[in-house]
Amino acid sequence: MSLNFFTLLQLPETFVIDLKKLDQNYQNIQKEIHPDRFASLADEAKIVSIKKAAEVNDAYQTLKSPIRRAEYLLHLYSIDIHDEKYTAVPQDFLIQQMEWREELETQKKNKQALEKLASDIQKNKSEMLSQLPGYFESKNNLNSAIKVTRELNFIEKIEQHINDALIEII
Amino acid sequence: MAYSDKVLDHYENPRNVGTLDKDDPHVGTGMVGAPACGDVMKLQIKVSDDGVIEDAKFKTYGCGSAIASSSLVTEWLKGKTLDQASEIKNSAIAEELALPPVKIHCSVLAEDAIKSAIADLKSKQGKLI
After folding, report:
1. Residue B99 gets which letter from DSSP?
2. pTM for the whole thing?
């Protein structure tokens, strides 16, 4: 069993975390277990420290991103938001997604339009992210946390496609 | 990962891409999404007065397998009754397209889109009566 990411990085198991502390703790642990420091060790010990470094890195990347952190917390509560059987995303949200995707498709060579779309989506994303702390604070609102976290996955996807389109233009 | 020939065929020549009038009482619209990959799928069916599907259109933003799954079901849906349509299983879609295990969820999405379109149509027509 691997360690809980929060425990690994010496942080309380909450959605709102001290990002400075996350960085500090991560750097301290990386220094301690960096594989280069174990160059003289036996192969077995080296492998252990390399594994540990990878695990800490994984934990850090997960906790640093608010969306990954929300998914991980839900996972700790035994909720898999990537459950493939779940497709009943709220209709109004899907309609919005369709509209954005259509806009991206028709404007994919238009830098200005894409930047406008990206900024609209960013606003939405910020709004959604700002709701998460409240939803995680009282566990009664976990259903809302699940809904928003799922929706943020769609948002990340379209952001990625817009970025790809913008790179093509440049 | 390599796509099967059938997936490639539907991906390169998708059948029945488009939109039907969602306000038409004979049209049912199904919309579903897969949070794991961010795919979104819209499937619409147009049903005659005697309950046979006359037309089906789709619009999918997602991977090749998701596009192929929805394109394939629009072909399958035409000429079927609503009852027959609701019997279409994701396993049949996956088998026809030879989807690998990691892409089975695309066929689940297509099956759920059919169910969602039928439910929309029934709730619409229920309201009319």
Report:
1. -
2. 0.86
